[in-house]
Design goal:
By secondary structure, this protein is mainly β. The protein has a single domain, classed as TolB, C-terminal domain (Neuraminidase, 6 Propeller). Helices cover 6% and strands 38% of the residues. The strands form eight sheets. Strands 3, 29, 30, 31, 32 and 33 form a six-stranded antiparallel beta sheet that branches. Strands 1-28-27-26-25 form a five-stranded antiparallel beta sheet, with no helix packed on it. It is globular, with a radius of gyration of 21 Å. It binds fe (ii) ion.
């Protein structure tokens, strides 16, 4: 196992979602000369290699385990991602594919695997028709849909997962969440909090492990506003606060501290007028700079404080916390917005294998400090390694964290950051082995913040099969403590979650 421990430099990601609302619009210009991803001679790179969808829903018991599953590791790892049911209508965008859940259940030392599509209304309609009915983000919307009273884009339920109020939800930032039953991964249906949810639901809500509250937001390509909502520990949508922005921007994630919520108004802008002229709806405009809005968790919209900062883009935050007068934010910062469509011939040629990430994403770990007393902003790079999909010990979300975990964007390593000491440790998977986001699982008897494991799916190009890999988080560079071999291929996806036995046992439905 290659290891590497080095000082960070003093500077952070990738894929997620550009979806905006049930009324969202295409993110690239309709006149692009890229060939259709539906064209078999020139397919999207996101339909090739291990980005390609699988078509069978499997249930496989008694999986082979290499190594020893830790005694304290009982529960289920579930990861979601795009897995289109049918060939696309026109060009394919990585974020378009129907959500598919891949889960490994660890119980009494035995492991089993299952994968299931998320049964959204759009999925079922297309299944009945036997073909794709919706266009994706890379194509102009089918306006006939709107006139027929249907959403312009299909809620794919494909981006991330959250556990709150004894429910597992799969998320898509353009629309409401879908509730999932575990461990069978069957779709229960849309959750709208008794019709109180009136705005899109980010793929990255934040659950405060101490208070039981869940904070989330929804943004719009149509209006310069973000709606910030809070679901209390009893599962009631308790408040929604509309926050005015200077312009409509893409906002994939946010952050919370014990006292504040942090919103990122970054210059990836939506402009309907621009689109009417045949230009892209979404455009990165660095001249506009960045603004970070800090709002007391239970505050009114008028209480938000805005802090100006140099232009950048952020898909994912690692964590944030209060430090005296300062609010500290650590996130994976991009120096520019990436070509997410990834259909450029240049980008495709640059990828050495169809399994390689075809997007060039200049993201690396970065820290901002916002001083609430003086208004000062200080920012610095923490590393120059390209990485994203940051995670922490979720018990520490919103509180000071010493350790953070990211995925190297070449997908061949996970990285553990010691933010206190300014060092990092790599866990390399070796050539031909591709990791996904690493999810931290706290040990039941944890005393230190990093007492636990990182779990991730690894795709091995040699046999085109996947594994659930378990790494001891406190011995990060060491060989995995266990590898659960899955006699199937798990396509690359987005975000995952660990559900312990206690959560599985308390499920609401
Ligand atoms: Fe994301």
């Amino acid at each position: 196992m290659d290891t590497n421990r080095r000082q960070f430099l003093a500077r952070s990601s990738l894929a997620s979602l550009l979806l905006t609302s049930g009324r969202c619009l295409p993110l690239v210009a309709a006149e692009s000369d890229d060939a259709s991803a539906g064209d078999a001679d020139n397919p999207s790179p996101f339909l090739l290699g291990n980005f390609a969808p699988v078509h069978d829903e499997l249930t496989i018991e008694r999986l082979e385990v290499v190594g020893q599953l830790p005694k304290g590791l009982g529960g289920m790892y579930v990861r979601t991602g795009p897995n289109p049911q049918f060939p696309p209508r026109g060009r394919y965008h990585w974020f378009d594919g129907d959500g598919m859940l891949h889960g490994v259940l660890l119980r009494d030392g035995a492991a089993s695997y299952r994968n299931r599509w998320v049964r959204t209304a759009g999925f079922e309609k297309e299944r009945a028709a036997g073909k794709a009915l919706w266009t994706g983000l890379a194509e102009p919307p089918d306006m006939a849909k709107m006139f027929g009273g249907e959403p312009l884009f299909k809620n794919a339920g494909n981006t991330a997962l959250v556990w709150h109020d004894r429910r597992l939800l799969t998320l898509w930032e353009g629309g409401p969440p879908h509730e999932i039953h575990v461990p069978d991964l069957e779709t229960v249906g849309v959750l709208d909090y008794g019709r109180r949810l009136r705005h899109p639901f980010t793929a990255h809500p934040k659950v405060d492990a101490e208070t039981g509250e869940m904070m989330f937001f929804g943004y719009s390509a149509m209006a310069p506003v973000v709606h910030y909502s809070l679901v209390n520990a009893a599962g009631e949508l308790a408040s929604t606060v509309p926050i005015k922005l200077r312009r409509s921007v893409m906002m994939h994630d946010f952050a919370v501290t014990a006292r504040h919520s942090i919103f990122m108004e970054l210059p990836a802008t939506f402009n309907l007028g621009r689109m009417a002229k045949g230009e892209p709806l979404l455009k990165y405009e660095p001249d506009l700079g960045s603004r970070f809005g800090i709002l007391p968790r239970h505050g009114k919209a008028t209480e938000i404080r805005w802090f100006e900062a140099p232009a950048c883009f952020v898909f994912h935050t690692l964590n944030a916390w209060d430090d005296g007068d300062e609010v500290v934010l650590v996130a994976c910062r991009l120096s520019e917005y990436p070509d997410i469509v990834g259909t450029s011939p240049v980008k495709r040629a640059a990828a050495g294998s169809p399994n390689d990430m075809p997007i060039d994403t200049p993201a690396s770990l970065y820290e901002w400090r916002f001083n609430l007393a003086t208004g000062e902003v200080r920012e610095r790079a923490l590393d120059d390694l390209r990485s994203d999909f940051p995670r922490v010990n979720d018990r520490r979300l919103g509180r000071p964290t010493r350790y953070g975990y990211t995925m190297a964007l070449d997908m061949h390593a996970l990285v553990k950051y010691d933010l206190e000491r300014g060092t990092s440790t790599r866990h390399d998977f070796g050539p031909g082995r591709y990791a996904g986001e690493g999810v931290f699982v706290a040990a039941p008897d944890a005393k230190q913040e990093d007492d636990g494991w990182l779990v991730t799916y690894v795709f091995d190009a040699a046999d085109e099969k996947s594994e659930l890999v378990v790494i001891d988080a406190s011995e990060f560079a060491s060989a995995p403590v266990a590898r659960v071999r899955i006699p199937a291929r798990i396509p690359f996806g987005f975000h995952g979650i660990w559900l312990g036995d206690e959560q599985l046992g308390e499920q609401r439905v």
